[in-house]
Amino acid sequence: MAIPIPSRMLFIDGEWREPVNKKRITIINPSTEEIIGDIPAATAEDVDIAVNAARRALSRNKGRDWASASGAHRAKYLRAIAAKITERKSELAKLEAIDCGKPLDEAAWDMDDVAGCFEYYADLAEALDAKQKAPVSLPMQTFKCHILKEPIGVVGLITPWNYPLLMAAWKVAPALAAGCTAILKPSELASVTCLELAEACREVGLPPGVLNILTGLGPEAGAPLASHPHVDKIAFTGSTATGSKVMSAAAQTTKPVTLELGGKSPILVFDDVDLDKAAEWTLFGCFWTNGQICSATSRLLVQESIATEFVDRLVKWTKNIKISDPMEEGCRLGPVVSAGQYEKVMQFISTAKREGATILCGGDRPQHLKKGYFVEPTIITDVTTSMQIWREEVFGPVLSVKTFSTEDEAIELANNTHYGLGAAVLSEDLERCERVTKALEAGIVWVNCSQPCFCQAPWGGNKRSGFGRELGEWGLDNYLSLKQVTQYTSNEPWGWYPSPEKPKL
Ligand code: NAD
Question: Which fold has domain 10-261+465-486?
Answer without folding.
Answer: Aldehyde Dehydrogenase; Chain A, domain 1 (3.40.605)
